[in-house]
Write a structure and sequence with these properties.
Function: Specifically dimethylates two adjacent adenosines (A1518 and A1519) in the loop of a conserved hairpin near the 3'-end of 16S rRNA in the 30S particle. May play a critical role in biogenesis of 30S subunits.
Keywords: Cytoplasm, Methyltransferase, RNA-binding, rRNA processing, S-adenosyl-L-methionine, Transferase
Protein name: Ribosomal RNA small subunit methyltransferase A
CATH superfamily of the largest domain: Vaccinia Virus protein VP39
Pfam families: RrnaAD (PF00398)
Strand content: 15-25%
Distance between the termini: 61 Å
CATH class of the largest domain: Alpha Beta
GO molecular function, one term: RNA binding
Helix content: 40-55%
Number of strands: 9
Strand order of the largest sheet: 4-3-2-5-6-9-7
Low-confidence stretches: none
Number of domains: 2
CATH topology of the largest domain: Rossmann fold
Largest sheet: 7 strands, mixed
Number of helices: 12
Radius of gyration: 21 Å
CATH architecture of the largest domain: 3-Layer(aba) Sandwich
Length: 283
């Protein structure tokens, strides 16, 4: 792996802050992440934000195929050269915005499910996670690098101030564990905070199944939309378009105190609430 500083200088490039470009500069760390990801020779990887190829190349050596996505044209051109130099022919480079990529159509082309990898920019991390949750029938697991505080939020439990909407959505359909802690000094340019790699392994079926997943996700969003308010008031003042009386009654039917707050509910309680509200709204 060529040093990021050497590469960007040779190509007269500058890391783009607006794209959240912080390039992993330590080859052994990239190798460690791929090793802990336990990628098998038959696996197909979808990499989000290929950058300078720090993860792309070790992933390509481990997997059957890698679809490497990046929206930066200059980096795609650079990576083409690096892949040739490293004699890697099983990487498909895609100059795309990951938020606009049709993952389902790509899965049909790949004729299989993906393992998703990536060092995610902070400003689009949440949007990408929501997309992966909705596309989880074609994604077995995701190995993703986040800023440390976001990773901690994703792994938080009920009753913790870090526990939020994305935590509940992920806990509903996946198991999450930490794979590695990565120091800020191992990136170029050096970010202000350390990063953490987590694995999100999607379940074949949720332990507590919602009657309507879209309703569940709307309820979770509404509950955390005004997290300092009681659940009754948060739900009543949300896009669910219900009043305080219906909110309180539904919470009561679900066996949940209307005066509790969103961060105190576990996944099973959110599913129960969602199922009860769905019945009320469909009557």
């Amino acid at each position: 792996m060529t040093s990021p500083i050497t590469l960007v200088k040779a190509w007269n490039l500058y890391p783009k802050k607006q794209l959240g470009q912080n390039f992993l500069s330590d080859p052994s760390t990239a190798e460690m992440i791929v090793a802990r990801s336990r990628i098998l020779p038959e696996d197909v990887v979808l990499e989000i934000g290929a950058g300078l190829g720090a993860l792309t190349m070790p992933a390509a050596r481990a997997a059957q195929k890698v679809y490497a996505v990046d929206k930066d044209h200059q980096l795609i051109e650079l990576l083409k050269t690096e892949l040739l130099a490293n004699r890697l022919s099983n990487v498909v480079l895609m100059e795309k915005d990951i938020l606009k990529l049709d993952i389902e159509a790509l899965a049909e082309t790949a004729a299989g499910k993906f393992i998703v990898m990536g060092n995610l920019p902070y400003n689009i991390s949440s949007q990408i996670l929501v997309r992966l949750i909705r596309s989880r029938t074609i994604v077995t697991r995701a190995i993703l690098m986040f800023q440390k505080e976001l990773a901690e939020r994703l792994m938080a439990g009920p009753g913790c101030k870090d526990y939020g909407r994305l935590t509940v959505m992920l806990r509903y359909c996946s198991d999450i564990k930490s794979l590695a802690h990565i120091r800020a000094s191992l990136f170029y340019p050096k970010p202000k905070v350390d990063s953490q790699v987590i694995q999100i392994k999607f379940k074949d079926a949720p332990e507590y199944r919602a009657d309507d997943e879209e309703m569940l996700f709307k309820v979770v969003k509404a509950a955390f939309g005004k997290r300092r308010k009681t659940l009754r008031n948060a739900l009543a003042g949300s896009e669910l378009h219900i009043d305080a009386k219906i909110a309180a009654g539904t919470l009561g039917n679900a066996g949940i105190d209307p005066m509790r707050r969103a961060e105190t509910l576990d996944v099973e309680e959110f599913v129960r609430l969602s199922n009860c509200l769905g019945k009320v709204l469909n009557d």
